[in-house]
Amino acid sequence: MNPDEAERLVKAYVKGIFAASREGAHSYDHTRRVYRIAMKLARQCGANERVVGAAALLHDIGRAREQETGVSHAILSAEMGREVLRRAGYTEEEIQQVTDAIRTHRFSEGLVPDSLEGKILSDADKLDAIGAIGVFRAVAQAALDGRGMKGFLKHAEDKLLRLRDLMYLEESKRIAERRHSVLEAFVNELREELNNS
To answer: Domain 1-111 adopts which CATH fold?
Structure first.
């Protein structure tokens, strides 16, 4: 199977999974944005684009099952992706590289990616959590979960405002600086308005 056909097969598989679930901030739209960011970083860094692309597409497919099983979606996504990667013609070595990148992408588990491709996926996922899009996603998720403005602020303090300092690549750090300033300005304004109301 040629690379374009392989990627189409993986994308169709991922779309099918997201069409069957309601994952809020971790939707197929999020996956597409992470994919675009990751591919841009991969080209700039000379990483294996085939591995990065597949890892970015598959990185969140286990989210719905995480709710059911209590197992990290990073573990589930890595395992769920193996079969579609085989059908798409990825080698066993490529499959291992993709699953390793997925397994280590989740910053909250404290795992450090041991490959350039894993670092790219981790950075791309974090970049989509900050900036204007990150603010929108976090506010929408807080509303969906019934956590409201205070829940959003807690999430911003506990996680989002820390992401800028957790980037691996220089280009990611540069992008994160600008996105962080958008997030920080929104959080500060929201705090001030809540305190004065």
So the answer is: Hypothetical protein af1432 (1.10.3210)
Q: What is the DSSP string of 155-170?
A: HHHHTGGGGGGG--SH
The angle subtended at Cα 122 by Cα 28 and Cα 68, nearest 5°, is 55
Rounded to whole angstroms, how far apart are CA atoms 103 and 97? 10
What does residue 169 show for φ and ψ, rounded to 5 degrees?
-100, 150
The token duo for 148 is: 């409201």
CATH 1.10.3210.10, the chain: domain bounds: 1-111
User: pTM higher than 0.90, yes or no?
Assistant: yes
- Report the amino acid identity of residue 122: S
Q: How far apart, in whole angstroms, are the C-alpha atoms of residue 93 and residue 147?
A: 43
Neighbouring CB atoms inside 10 A of 70's CB total 7
CATH architecture of the region 129-197: Up-down Bundle (1.20)
Distance CA 110, CA 159 (A): 13
C-beta contacts of 139-147 below 8 A and 24+ residues apart:
140/24, 140/25, 141/24, 141/25, 144/24, 145/24
- Give the pair of three-digit tokens for residue 174: 């540069």
Specify burial of residue 85 (Cβ count, 10 A radius: 0-12, 13-18, 19+): buried
pLDDT digit string (tens) for 137-195? 999 989 988 999 999 999 999 999 999 999 999 999 999 999 999 999 999 999 999 99
